[in-house]
Amino acid sequence: MVSTSTQIAGFAFDNCLMNAAGVACMTKEELAEVKDSAAGTFVTKTATLDFRQGNPEPRYQDVPLGSINSMGLPNNGLDYYLDYLLELQESEPNRTFFLSLVGMSPEETHTILKKVQASDFKGITELNLSCPNVPGKPQIAYDFETTEKILSEVFAYFKKPLGIKLPPYFDIVHFDQAAAIFNKYPLEFVNCVNSIGNGLYIEDESVVIRPKNGFGGIGGQYIKPTALANVHAFYQRLKPEIQIIGTGGVLTGRDAFEHILCGASMVQVGTTLHKEGVAAFERITAELKVIMEEKGYESLEDFRGKLKYIEE
Ligand code: SIN
């Protein structure tokens, strides 16, 4: 019997596929659709303290090899998502869900995390250190000093399971430096990667999204090699207690297989979910199971992180 079940932070999930924060997760209705699909769990849209309208539309465009977005963190505010998660804790006590969040300033991040800490929320929190789309706000995890300060302050009071969503890194020294920081903290996971920030997609003579004169985060097929490199680089460098969630360029079961081979314990689907809807989870799971069967693998543990290198 082939199983795609997995664990994150000690919680069991019957499937390793879930949505990526930003897709199909703005409203309770969208979250319920993911919850009731073949996905193992869901993550909410990244919540800020209060409701945010986000950037002007058009701000998300599917394109042939992926997507470009500059959403600007539109969301219904922390309480909306937290209330829903607390409801689900009562109605579906055997399942665990992810809450994504970040403040518009370090102070707001602490306010939000303290509210979550004080709440009855028993699930997993993902701190988004990588949104590329809020004008004037850099991607936090590209600034190692600020990242370390936030993590050291957060872990002084936050005692629930916490992971971080990372932007892609492109330099071996940056992998080393980032991993050295993350290894100092009791993180449950890192999620690699958010979109590749600030790309441009052009049709005829024009950009395709309005904010920032068309600059936006790139997802989909364009980014799989970068996503796999980040998953594997952190798998090689992080202490084993920090698990990896792989996100980026997952269209097929083969893509999910490659993320797991690089070290991912959970795989998130963004652009493909936006293009195909929640039926994508069933299709990608079935494709992944066929590959596992062909190779004689019964569980993700049989091949997780076992990427082969070419000998000298
Ligand atoms: C956005 O809301 O701009 C996308 C979220 C993200 O990239 O973190």
Detailed description of the structure:
With 312 residues, the protein is of the alpha/beta class. It is 34% helix and 19% strand. It contains 9 helices and 15 strands. It has helices spanning 28-35, 78-91, 106-118, 144-157, 172-182, 224-237, 253-261, 271-276, 279-295; strands at residues 6-8, 11-13, 17-19, 60-63, 66-69, 98-101, 124-128, 162-166, 189-192, 196-200, 202-203, 206-207, 215-219, 243-247, 266-269. It is globular, with a radius of gyration of 18 Å. The N and C termini lie far apart (37 Å). The mean pLDDT is 98. The structure holds succinic acid. The site of succinic acid (SIN) has 13 residues, from loops. Residues 22, 46, 71-73, 128, 130-133, 194-195, 217 line the site of succinic acid (SIN).
**Which architecture name does CATH use?**
Alpha-Beta Barrel
The whole-number mean of residue pLDDT values reads 98
Main β-sheet, in a few words?
7 strands, parallel
Shape: globular
Quick summary:
The protein has 312 residues and is α/β, with parallel strands linked by helices.
SSE order and pairing:
Layout: E1 6-8, E2 11-13, E3 17-19, H1 28-35, E4 60-63, E5 66-69, H2 78-91, E6 98-101, H3 106-118, E7 124-128, H4 144-157, E8 162-166, H5 172-182, E9 189-192, E10 196-200, E11 202-203, E12 206-207, E13 215-219, H6 224-237, E14 243-247, H7 253-261, E15 266-269, H8 271-276, H9 279-295
Parallel strand pairs: 3-15, 6-7, 7-8, 8-9, 9-14, 14-15
Antiparallel strand pairs: 1-2, 4-5, 5-13, 10-13, 11-12
Helix pairs in contact: 3-4, 4-5, 5-6, 6-7, 7-9
The structure holds succinic acid.
